């Protein structure tokens, strides 16, 4: 579970930004609360703002850290830059991240400071009593790195030679250091449709990729079939079928193709391969996979433009999946952007961040940080009237 993330000098955000999932003691308890050791945390956070304000950039830190900690050692070329950009006016300054999270019954803090081509500082801490003690620290000194560890047995000489554009956790995992596995598992549990360039836009090939992923988990497939049929897409369910194709060289490849199952009121049945279904049905299938995977396994779903592939009337049903224990038994979390202001009628002020760009810099704030805004205020009406900010200037 994510407690909070802090970052600075990242894409359109130059100043420090904190996305806090913590509730404090004032908000009235709701189904979106996670109770943990006397504290409460949000299951769902919505991000609202005008086009170009920086909403996607607000989600990127979680997407970037997920990739960096899990895949950078094998997924980044030795001489490549780190796929992360500082604010255009501060390219010589470092970008900083700090993530506090709870995992396997313990509190952790991960810190990272980078430039475009190298890590300046990376550290992982565990909370012991009231303080955090480091598990490892890695710091750039001249052309090399220093490395200290307590309970992270990566050989010092080897750790100090790890190249500067990859996470030490990712490298340790590739070298089979057992202590790295739980942290890779945590960051791998961040499911997202965001990549370094922004939102991962729908491509027809993604349908096959999603089908191949969910066919390995029968419960996930059943949940996807049920969700697609309930979302009034003209389907009574979906079914995956194995297809074998031979390329020009005679090589055969096997993959799975989803078929939409249809039933008329007169009881007639037929099915269609998803490539004959509407683009909206296909894109909904792709969008729902990271969300349902998060609900199935626990973790965090980071979704950009939630309402882009779903009708706005479906958003309340999706939020209910995260609210109730029978659909969210692992207390998974969701943070998403959307262009549908009606979402302000569904959530409380401590569950909504607004994003606005002023003087070429993005700024984000949580609604309960605004002075004078009451818990029983009509957030939607105030937003539409321009009283909360973060609306287009036309």
Spatial strand arrangement across the major sheet? 2-1-6-7-8-9-10
What would you call the shape? globular
Portion of residues in beta strands equals 25-35%
* Counted beta strands: 20
CATH T-level fold name of the largest domain: Rossmann fold
What structural class do you assign from the helix and strand content? alpha+beta
Summed up, the domain count is: 2
Structural Rg: 22 Å
Helical stretch tally: 9
Name the poorly predicted regions: none
First-to-last CA distance? 39 Å
Looking at how many chains there are and whether they match, the oligomeric state comes to single chain
Largest sheet: 7 strands, antiparallel
Helix content, binned percent: 10-25%
**If you average the pLDDT, what whole number results?**
93
């Amino acid at each position: 579970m994510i407690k909070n993330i802090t970052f600075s000098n990242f894409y359109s955000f130059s100043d420090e930004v904190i996305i806090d999932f913590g509730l404090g003691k004032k908000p009235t308890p709701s189904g979106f609360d996670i109770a943990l050791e006397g504290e409460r945390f949000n299951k769902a956070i919505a991000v609202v703002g005008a086009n170009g304000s920086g909403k996607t950039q607000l989600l990127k830190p979680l997407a970037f850290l997920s990739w960096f900690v899990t895949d950078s050692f094998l997924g980044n070329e030795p001489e490549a830059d780190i796929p992360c950009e500082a604010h255009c006016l501060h390219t010589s300054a470092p970008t900083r991240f700090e993530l506090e999270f709870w995992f396997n019954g313990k509190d952790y803090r991960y810190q990272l400071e980078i430039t475009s081509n190298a890590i300046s500082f990376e550290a992982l801490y565990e909370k012991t009593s009231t303080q955090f003690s480091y598990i490892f620290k890695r710091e750039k000194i001249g052309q090399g790195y220093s490395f200290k560890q307590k309970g992270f047995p990566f050989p010092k000489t080897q750790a100090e030679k790890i190249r500067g554009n990859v996470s030490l956790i990712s490298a340790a995992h590739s070298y089979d250091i057992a202590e790295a596995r739980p942290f890779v598992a945590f960051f791998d549990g961040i499911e997202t449709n965001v990549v370094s360039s922004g939102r991962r836009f729908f491509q027809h090939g993604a349908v096959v990729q999603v089908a191949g992923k969910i066919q390995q988990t029968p419960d996930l497939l059943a949940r996807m079939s049920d969700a697609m049929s309930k979302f009034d897409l003209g389907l009574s369910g979906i079914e995956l079928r194995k297809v074998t194709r031979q390329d020009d060289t005679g090589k055969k490849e096997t993959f799975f193709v989803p078929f939409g199952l249809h039933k008329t009121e007169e009881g007639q049945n037929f099915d269609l391969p998803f490539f004959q279904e509407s683009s909206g049905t296909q894109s909904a299938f792709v969008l729902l996979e990271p969300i349902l995977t998060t609900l199935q396994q626990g973790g965090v779903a980071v979704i950009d433009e939630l309402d882009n592939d779903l009708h706005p009337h479906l958003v309340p049903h999706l939020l209910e999946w995260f609210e109730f224990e029978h659909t969210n038994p692992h207390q998974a979390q969701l943070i998403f952007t959307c262009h549908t202001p009606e979402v302000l009628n569904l959530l409380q002020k401590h569950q909504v961040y607004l994003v606005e760009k002023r003087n070429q810099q993005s700024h984000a704030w949580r609604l309960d940080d605004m002075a004078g805004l009451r818990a029983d205020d009509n957030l939607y009406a105030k937003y539409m009237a321009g009283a909360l900010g973060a609306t287009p200037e036309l």
